[in-house]
Amino acid sequence: MSGMHGDDDLGHTVAGWAGACLALVGFASSGVAMIAGWPVGFWLGLGVVALAALLAWVLHLSGWGKPSGPRPPADQHWRTRDRVAAQGHPGCLGCRAAGRGRRHAELGLKPVRQPVTEAL
């Protein structure tokens, strides 16, 4: 990832893009429903926003997200799967909510990072 951001890992992942796009649709539809005076549509739009958060969380847990902090340059493509997600990321609220990473934290272990051989 070059250009104006240099080698900074901005977290472009499938989970991030899918959750953000669905949340944008939900907020936009909720706003249009509010302007149109349709209360049911407003709440449906907010339901879509909640669904976006759930979708991003599930995709993160299935390996389409990223751990906190920058990734190695070879892993920064947005469609690169995270091979450590099944073990849980240290300090990750989403992983802790799913029950992952607790054993590592209790034992003081760090997850083993497997090398990525290909980007999809």
Tell me what you see in this structure:
This protein is mainly α. The protein has one domain. Helices cover about 50% and strands about 0% of the residues. The chain is built from 4 helices and no strands.
Protein topology:
Layout: H1 14-36, H2 39-64, H3 93-97, H4 102-107
- The gyration radius over C-alpha positions equals 17 Å
- Measured by DSSP, the beta-strand proportion falls in under 5%
SSE sequence, one letter per element? HHHH
- With helices defined by DSSP (H or I, 4 residues minimum), what is the helix count? 4
Indicate the structural class: mainly alpha
Overall tally of structural domains: 1
| Major sheet attributes | none
Shape from CA axes?
elongated
Question: Roughly what percent helix?
Answer: 40-55%
Distance between the termini: 16 Å
Number of strands: 0
Give keywords.
120 residues; mainly alpha; 4 helices
What's the quick description here?
By secondary structure, this protein is mainly α.
